[in-house]
Amino acid sequence: MNAAPEMNAVFTSADGGMTAAVARYYDTTVDLYEDLWGEHVHHGYWDPHERSGTDPADRIGATDRLVRELVGYAGIPAGAHVLDVGCGIGGPALYLAGTLGATVEGVTLSEAQAARATAKAEAAGLAERARFHRRDGLATGFPDASFDVVWAMESLMHIEDRAAFFTEALRLLRPGGRLAVATWSVRDGELNAAEQDLVRMILRHQVMPSLSSRREHERLCRDAGFEGVAAADWSAAVARTWDPQYAALPHFERSKTMMMELARERGVDVLGYFHAGPLMKRGFDTGVVTYDALRATKPGGRAHPDAA
């Protein structure tokens, strides 16, 4: 049973609900995230017992590796036509287009993210292979069976109707096409009151409607019609992303003046990023928050050879 609470009403007002809140949040934080996290605005991946250093190169290597790990886990083929749902500023898409020779259509709710990703693709000489659009991932406008791969790295948590995501992914994939998802999740089973409060605060500050468990993600994927559905727990590999030194938060947290200036310039929602760091660390440390990779195949073609 998924016991995660729903989003605080501050992000579900009449100005467009969750979709508008997510767009607003990333429009106002796009440069902040890039300054602090680099090209990839997502978790890093480390081997067991490997320490996360404070050097920016460590962040780059770890976030690059997370992309490679999902490519390998989901069996993304070279030269594939990929839909990147929640593409951010384009880091994973540019890897797929550059290293794998894929053709990528990236969609994001944030106009600022789409613009930044487009600029990065042009600078990398990949504009013809990686295109970015401000579109809802549940209403992209692409025809049936348009893609070999639907890729969603740390975007599923922002989607309120997750059943609709899996149904839409199935529609957009060609027979035999592959789904690749990396997402935050919640521990399966009932949460006690303190754990529910922790999840509620994370949801509020990270602009998410709820968290689903790994089992729930797998069930929704199968119910949509996918085959070869499998999921892996990557929590231990990514948790150190939220180590204070790595997360690049302390110098901001110590400066109340800087925080107040950010709030005045961009609105109070931007401060959620700074509040979320310690909450996420506590979530991983206690096992309440988990991190999962999920792969699946659309029926009608050859499945991934390792699919369960």
* Number of contiguous helices: 11
Tell me the span between the first and last alpha carbons: 23 Å
CATH domain class name: Alpha Beta
Q: What general form does the structure show?
A: globular
Key descriptive features of the protein:
disordered N terminus, alpha/beta, 11 helices, Rossmann fold, single chain, Methyltransf_11, 308 residues, S-adenosylmethionine-dependent methyltransferase activity, 7-stranded mixed β-sheet, transferase
Kindly summarize this structure in a few lines.
Residues 82-91 are annotated as: SAM motif I. InterPro entries: Erg6_SMT_methyltransf, MeTfrase_dom, Methyltransf_11, PiNMT-like, SAM-dependent_MTases_sf. With 308 residues, the chain is α/β, with parallel strands linked by helices.
Structural commentary:
Keywords: Methyltransferase, S-adenosyl-L-methionine, Transferase. Residues 172-181 are annotated as: SAM motif III. Pfam families: Methyltransf_11. The chain has 308 residues and is of the alpha/beta class. 43% of the residues lie in helices and 17% in strands. It is built from 11 helices and 7 strands. It has a 7-stranded mixed sheet with strand order 3-2-1-4-5-7-6, sandwiched between helices. Helix 4 (111-123) links the parallel strand 2 (103-108) and strand 3. Helix 1 runs parallel beside helix 4, helix 5 packs across helix 7 (214-224) and helix 6 (193-206) packs antiparallel against helix 11. The chain is globular and about 45 Å long. Mean pLDDT is 82; it is low at 1-15, 250-254 and 303-308.
